[in-house]
Structure formats: C-alpha cells, structure tokens
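Worked problem 6 (solution included).
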Amino acid sequence: MKKIRTVLGDIPVEELGVTDCHDHIIRSGGPEVKLDTAFLMDDVDCAAEELGRFLKAGGKTMVCMDPIGCGRNVSKMLEVAERFRGEGHILMTTGFHKGSNYCPNTSFLATVEVNKVAQMMILEIEEGMDLHSYNGPVVERTKAKAGLIKAGTSYRLITGLEEKALAVAAITQKETGCAISMHTDFGTMGMEILDAIEANGGSAEKTVLCHMQRNRDKYYYQMLLDRGVNICFDEPNKAAYCSDTEIAEVIGWLIDKGYSQQLVLGMDGGRREALASYMKTEGRANGLEYLLTRFVSILKKTGITQETIDTMLIHNPARIFAIDV
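Solution. The predicted structure is:
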C-alpha cells in the first residue's frame, strides 16, 4: 500500500493535494544563519501564519527541506503541523545539505562509516526524527518521522564529503523507498549526482533535482529528464536569479517535449524577506502563497493548461513522495 509520510503520520496518497515541493518556514540556526541572519526563521506563530496563507490559497502540503545540521527544529515544526491537523500537511527531511555546511574533519558525516550514517537516517524515517537532529551524544526519538531524504552538492563540484552524503542518501532510499531531494548549486552537477545515486543503489525516478532554474539550459534539462529524474522548478519571486516568465517558458518547452510527468514546483522562499509573515513588522512582502496566487497565472499565460498544472502540483508529488508501507 502506498502512503505519504507526514510529520503527523502516514496519509493516503490522494490526500497529499496541491504541494509546494521545496520550502522553509522554520530554521532555528546553522551555518547559513551564521553567514546571514536573514536565513533565521525561528517563530512558530509566523511559520503557522505562512503555512496558513498557503493553505488558504488552495495549497494542501508543504515539503520543508531543512536537513540535519542546518537549523532543523523538529519540535517547532510539530507545533506548526498540529495547528493545521486535518487541514494541511508537512513533510520533513532527513539527510544533509551541501558539504560546506559541515566540518570535513569532525562532523559525524565525516567520521562515521557510510552504512552506519545511513542507518541513522533510516531510523529517522522508520522510527522518528531525533529531537536534537543528531547534534550531540543524546538521541531522543520523537513521534514525527521524516518523509524524504536530502543531499546537496557544490557549484560545479561534488566534494568527498558530498560523495559520502550521496551514498548515504541512496542507501537510505533503497531501504525505505523515500524520495531523495537534491540541493544543487546553481543547477550544476546533475548528471554526476545521478551517477552517484545509481552507483549506490538509488533510483533516478525517486530523485528530485532542485534549483535547476539557475542553470537555464533546456537541453541540459532534457538530458537529465531522459535519465528518469524529476526536476523541481522552485524559485518564483526571485527575479535576481531568473524571472517568473523565464521559468514558466522553459517549463512550457519541457512540457511540449513530453516531460510533464517529471516536473514539480516549489517556492524555496529560504529567507525572511520571502515570507510575508516574518516581514509584517518591517514592511510588505510576498509570502509562499505566491506560488499559487501569482506564478500559476503566469504558467497559464504561457499556454500551460490547468490539467498540466495539476499534474505538476498534485499528481507528480504524490508519485514521487509515496512509499510502500
């Protein structure tokens, strides 16, 4: 039987609904916050308001991509999820970000053998996430289980530590059936990521490559999609990187080429200024509902049908994130 693993428990696949496949509403610390405090999003009320805005706009599920060591806060995310029990869903992740967020000498990813690290990730999916996100010697399993696996790679490079994280992700996927969602720096190293995942027993069909719109090369996308992988176009409302229209037009091109079954959408707000709830005391900002209230209308203007939009927002996420239970 196929199920979706949310932080409040498993749900039928058909209940997943309209899904933001890559976002952040709580980040309590970590290396990114140390570099720039705009990455700090640590308020349960603001996070709940942001999720509520997305649900009110027609959304149903948010996939929150904060991994171990990068500000993941299980207890606060559980509190947000409980406020919307029966109304919407949250998926959380286990695994790792790109290598620069971890010490290559002393992090447990660096010092512990691959299969033992994978077992730690498997336990987060099958038994419950650690309350402390494996940040010390004490492990306290919560009732909340991770619903997918994260790994990350650098710009034009996969470091030794990242190779290890990819192996961990693939082994964990093979054991649990959970999807892998990849951070790519500026959309690079996609082919090499797939090589590493498949070499360790993972599946391209259950892998999502994120941030690919930062590498605006439609033939590169086509080469990747021909290997069976899924692409998440996840940065509307980030004009500094790519306009909404540019993203929509390349999505339309890929749909015309027959790849609609392998495309998903997200916002990846990432920073405070992308979440209206966090900015309301400072000024006016768009929130994560922008995906549905603004970006979907641009998709339609470029000729993409509602049926295909539903495929990207509902049916593809349901296939990718489903696991056998």
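Discussion: Residues 2-324 form a domain with the TIM Barrel fold (CATH 3.20.20.140).
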